[in-house]
Design a protein that fits this description.
By secondary structure, this protein is mainly α. It contains five helices and two strands; from the N terminus they run H-E-E-H-H-H-H. A hairpin with a 5-residue loop joins strand 1 and strand 2. The relative contact order is 0.15.
């Protein structure tokens, strides 16, 4: 599946979350939690949703900006294993294409995590005493493992010369 389609689907899901939860949440929502999942920071509903959409926008912008920067930076400023091979005139288009797609996948992974965590926050704020669910730690660990796998795959791609 194309990572861009996943990104669009997750942004659409975030829009549906916003439409569904905005008027259901109290005027003051728990926006920060202790390691034990107890609410210890609060914000207005509007600032909570603004934060949500800023995070989404930053993830998307960074996933587009890094490959765009690589495309315009002088090759001497790009740090890749086997850089002479991967940034050669012959391989450069392939390298840039790989970087673009790989960063789209990273953005999709981060968006999935963000959407899932905010769903947990919405659910927590619908109760009288907001508490982050027990799923947060396993989701966080899964996300970190996925990012590590992403990083290993990215590095391995450029560590070998075919």
């Amino acid at each position: 599946m194309e990572p861009r389609i996943i990104q669009v689907a997750l942004v659409m899901f975030a829009a549906l979350q916003t439409i569904y939860y905005y008027n259901k949440l109290p005027a003051r929502v728990a926006s920060h939690f202790t390691a034990g999942g107890i609410a210890n920071g609060w914000s207005s509903t509007s600032s909570f949703f603004i934060t949500y959409w800023i995070v989404i926008a930053v993830v998307l912008a960074v996933s587009l900006a890094i490959p765009a920067l690589i495309a315009i930076l002088p090759l001497g400023l790009i740090n890749l294993p086997n850089k002479d091979y991967w940034l050669s005139e012959e391989m450069y288009p392939r390298t840039l294409g790989y970087v673009r797609v790989h960063f789209r996948w990273l953005a999709a992974l981060i968006l999935l995590f963000v959407v899932f965590v905010f769903q947990m926050l919405f659910q927590a704020n619908l109760s009288q005493s907001p508490q982050l669910g027990a799923w947060f730690i396993p989701v966080l660990i899964g996300f970190l493992v996925a990012v590590i796998i992403w990083g290993i795959r990215f590095t391995r791609q450029f560590s070998k010369i075919p």
